[in-house]
Amino acid sequence: MNISWNWLQEYINLDIDVETTAKILTDIGLEVEGVDKFQTIKGGLEGVVIGKVLTCIDHPNSDHLHITTVDVGGPEILPIVCGAPNVAAGQTVVVATEGTKLYDGDQEFVIKKSKIRGEVSCGMICAEDEIGVGKSHDGIMVLPDSLKAGMPAAEYFNIKDDYTIAIGLTPNRIDAASHIGVARDVAAYLNVNSSAKLTLPSVDAFKLSEQKSPISVVVERDDLCPRYTGVVVSGVTVKDSPEWLQNKLKAVGLRPINNVVDVTNFTLMEMAQPLHAFDIAKIEGSEIHVKTVADKTKMTTLDGVERELSADDLVICNSNKPMCIAGVFGGLESGVSESTTSVFIESAYFNPVSIRKTARRHGLNTDASFRYERGIDPNNAIYALKRAALLIQEVAGGQICGPIFDSHPESFPAFPVTLNMDKAYSLMGKNIGDDTLKKILQGLEIQIVAEQGRELSLLVPPYRVDVQRAEDVIEDILRIYGYNNVEFTDNLHAAITHADAVNPTKLRNTIADMLVDCGWYEIMNNSLTNSAYYVDLQSDIKNHLVKIMNPLSAELDCMRNTMLFSALEVVNHNINRQQNDLSLFEFGSIYFTKANEGTVTDKYGEQQQISLCITGKQSPLHWASKQEDTNIFVLKSAVMKVLSKLGMMNIQFESYKDDMLSGLECTILNHKVIARLGSVSKAILKKFDIDKPVYFAEIYWNVILENYRQKVQFKELPQAPSVRRDLALLIDSAVSFEQIKNIAYKTEKKLLKQVTAFDVYEGKGIPAGKKSYAIAFWLQDDQKTLTDTQIDSVMNRLIANYQKELGAELR
Asked: Is the Cβ–Cβ distance between 209 and 402 less than 8 Å?
């Protein structure tokens, strides 16, 4: 949100500079993201002065140029070649001197001394569009003769510098989404140690004419519109706004449209009350109905888009059709135009939840919806309406026709809060003094209605929708007092504790450090994702999506049920930027539905996971080694390192395949699935516009924590050496190494320490449907050296079991 420094000072007298003000705003919770200098005319007309044309003759080498001499108040008379048809001696003109920077939109050009068809020119006599004070280019500007040569043009055109303060407004502080709201907070802060007064614009001049309002209003859905007010201003002349109004809007980043619409935008930025102006001539039946309409009713909004309304959308209608999506966006057919002579000004308080749902449903985010959906001041509607009506009278003429329509003339109640001052000081960490506390409450417009002992009975104004508990009030007091003013004590309180429980954070950091040391990059993704990713899946996860009721956008409408799609978005992003070799990991959660009824924990589940994702080459380009494509075995190795680091032993791998992954499923002794890994299906990769293999693994962190044992078991190093024996087996192609390994450990549980496949071959010399496995076995007795008889016995039993269970043949 943008705030104009000059505009802000109309409500509070500040004897501090803009940098100090920015620091104060940040300290009181309105974080300033930037302060930019604003000039009503870009460049501020620096170098542009008033000049007197002394002589003017025709250019000898041109039929339309003129050679002039101009007095610009300096020691020298400037020769300037001018092509304007109306230039003449004796005129008072605007001159851009040598070195001046002028702008045409975003393009900058510098006035330089030059020769134009052989004649020296040391400046430029300007037309109004060339310096940004108008649009005409029919000829140069001719000013009153009373002006002195050398006078800065910025002084004549009243060009003032301003500063635009960009505030990163948090969602709970909608009360500060205006200049008055910001001024209120600054005044409360300054009043702690000095005196500052908040001055609000007067509406005492508001007066209804004898002419009666031609518009009748009916609020049919007061649950969605608790308050609707409006008044008619007739006899207006729609035209460009005066300079002061245009400059204010430009300073906060708004584009001036016309004087009536500009007043509604001005009031919005002044006091956070959205307004809407309807052309009375376009209100059919002279009736306004605040209601909902039939589902899929069509209307065209101001941006020219035809939209289908929902039966839940609150709409402002005339007697026949919708004119405006309430609190969100105006309609194209009922807006103010140059032919408008009478307007109906709407000032309302709409249900915040309803506005938010409507805005998200239509993918709209307007200045009005931004404020309505967070909760504006319902008691401010009439004041804002009178202020806008008076401004329209000032800039567009006309008279205000009565009466004012108000569907809820009673004031909305304040929020009652009981505050214990001692509790406040305890939570703050400092006793700031009762007088200071009460002064801050007064500055925040929080009324003290009673004081009993150390307790204050307070009434919090309804525009502070985020302050409804004592803790909220305490936070607000400390915000204004200043967090930086709460000193640290000299005492440090600490306790030494010992816990045998698993520390998930420590484990997570251990794994993250290990993966980073191995060349992996950690990524962090949004838990919100696009439900469209799940539509074509055959697996059951698409039936257990946690849908968002009010999604920020159609692309973020559900909670992720797998971390795969988040990883693929990152892969696609990096590949598109020529980063093709990726090793990525993420700690995160997936979410799913469990039941249709019950508590939140009954209906929804969350599971923590580690995801690993690789693609591209295994290693960077290097002269000493050949680059090879990564594969599932590289991913499996990384998964095994993670599980080994966590002490997960006796891991079994089995084949696994679904419509997302084709690879392996990893289980531990209690048959719990601890991880899945594999190559991502081509259909999934195509959705993300990825045309190269990607391998993905998900490790189930919840299962890890359930089975993790902190105690490290130590054992004595073996005293005898190990012995290696190899077998070359001819087996069916369908047999996996995992089967071979399991049979080996089942055959010999004591002496067999390790089983490894070091060669797999299919092709020439091998029968169809067969493959050759070269297997290495390591045997070892911890206490004594193995004899040939013992080794042969183990190998013979292995061969016999392979022949029996796998139909293996020795090669």
From this structure: yes
* DSSP assignment letter at 319: S
Q: What are the residue ranges of helices labelled H in 432-560?
A: 434-443, 470-481, 504-517
pLDDT of res. 652: 85
Helices in 630-760 by DSSP H: which ranges?
A: 632-645, 682-687, 701-707, 737-747
pLDDT band at 503 (very low <50, low <70, confident <90, very high): confident
CA nearest neighbour of 565 among 534, 610, 523, 592: 534
Listed residue (192, 183, 175, 169) closest to 441, CA to CA: 192
Is residue 725 scored above 80 in pLDDT? yes
Up-side HSE of residue 714: CA atoms within 13 Å toward CB?
1
Which of 706, 680, 666, 548 shows the shortest CA–CA distance to 614? Answer: 680
Interval 527-556 mean pLDDT: 88
In three-state form (DSSP H/G/I as H, E/B as E, the rest C), the secondary structure along 577-596 is CCCCCEEEEEEEEEEEECCC
Please state, as a whole number, how many other Cβ atoms lie within 10 Å of the Cβ of residue 98: 15
Q: Residue length, the chain?
A: 811
Closest CA to 286 of 335, 338, 326, 344: 344
pLDDT, tens digit (0-9, with 9 covering 90-100), for 163-175: 999 999 998 999 9
C-alpha 652/C-alpha 745 separation (Å) is 12
The tens digit of pLDDT for each residue in 620-674 reads: 888 888 889 999 999 999 999 999 888 887 788 888 999 999 999 998 867 789 9
3-state secondary structure 84-130: CCCCCCCCEEEEEECCCEEEECCEEEECCCEEECCEEECEEECCHHH
Q: Evaluate whether 127 touches 141 at the Cβ level (below 8 Å).
A: yes
Residue of 561, 555, 661 lying closest to 613 (CA atoms) = 661
Closest of 555, 565, 550 to residue 531, by C-alpha? 555
Helix 381-396 / helix 259-271 crossing angle, nearest 10 deg: 140
The mean pLDDT of the chain is 92
Query: For the segment 67-80, what is each residue's pLDDT rounded down to a tens digit?
Result: 999 999 999 999 99
- Compute the half-sphere exposure of residue 37: CA atoms within 13 Å on the CB side of its CA: 7
φ, ψ for residue 63 (rounded to 5)? -95, 0
Give the integer Cα–Cα distance in Å for 186 and 3: 13
Give the tens place of pLDDT for each residue, 389-425: 999 999 999 999 989 999 999 999 999 999 999 999 9
Distance of CA 147 to the CA centre of its chain: 52
CA angle 569, 575, 581 (to 5 degrees): 110
- pLDDT, tens only, 202-258: 999 999 988 888 999 999 999 999 999 999 999 999 999 998 999 999 999 999 999
Vertex 342 angle, CA 337 and 345, to 5°:
90
The confidence score (pLDDT) of residue 746 equals 92
CA distance 142 to 93: 5
d(CA 586, CA 540): 24
Which pLDDT band holds residue 500 (cuts at 50, 70, 90)? low
CA separation for the pair 94, 142 (Å, rounded): 8
Residue 350: phi and psi, rounded to 5, are -100, 155
- In whole angstroms, what is the distance from residue 27 CA to residue 482 CA? 6
pLDDT at 710 (0 to 100): 63
Q: What single DSSP character describes residue 490?
A: S
CA distance 360 to 344: 27
Which of 315, 286, 285, 283 shows the shortest CA–CA distance to 298?
Answer: 315
**DSSP letter (8 states) at residue 764:** T
Query: Which amino acid type is present at position 52?
Result: K
